[in-house]
Amino acid sequence: MADIVIDPELVVWSADAGARDQHPLVVVMHGRGSDERDLAGLFPMLPSGFVYASLRAPHGFGPGFAWFDDAAEEPGNPRRESADAMADAVLAWVRHLPWRPTTVGTLGFSQGGAMATHLLRQGHGIVSFAVNMSGFVVGGVHPADAALATERPPLYWGRGSLDPFFTPELVRRAEDWLPRHTSLTEAVYPGLGHSVSDEMLRDVAAFLSARR
Known about the structure:
The chain has a single domain (8-209), classed as Rossmann fold (3-Layer(aba) Sandwich), CATH 3.40.50. Helix content is 31%, strand content 21%. The protein is built from six helices and nine strands. It has helices spanning 36-40, 80-95, 111-122, 145-151, 168-181, 198-209, and strands at residues 12-13, 25-29, 51-55, 59-61, 64-66, 104-109, 127-133, 154-160, 183-189. The protein has a seven-stranded mixed sheet with strand order 1-3-2-6-7-8-9, sandwiched between helices. A two-stranded antiparallel sheet has the order 4-5. The longest helix has 16 residues, at 80-95. It starts with 11 loop residues before the first strand and ends with a helix.
């Protein structure tokens, strides 16, 4: 598999370079077909005390970008090895930061939500908590799963009741894996499709506030 990298020049930050040190970092990952500017629009609505960094996914998709290559991966069901490699690229970006975050968490929407969750696995010991907004869980057994089942790191998972991308299989996979491997905060929002509502955002903000 070709090396995958996160371009550090394409990151949207919530704080200037001089104000990032000695703060917990939340790595933010957009959905399929979007880019790093999308979720950066949420920064003003998220709790202060964190530094947020919105990354651009490396694979082109339509007018935007994706975390998984549709030419090689089934949408919603990427191979675990591909998710591991993508997570490794994000972790490499974190390691090359010129400062050391006090804590690292992840937040993402859709494919980005799946990435946020998978980074708890591939980034075991580095990533402390995750926010999965309308995202799935990557299939397969990961080497870190046994440790996560004991440690149960905090994770928020929210989705709309009318989200057309959540097949019964994806719901079953998430509902099977998440409660067994995380301290789960789960919410299903009536009438919501594949999007982020004000109510979901309030719940995400409350979850993050509890991590400070």
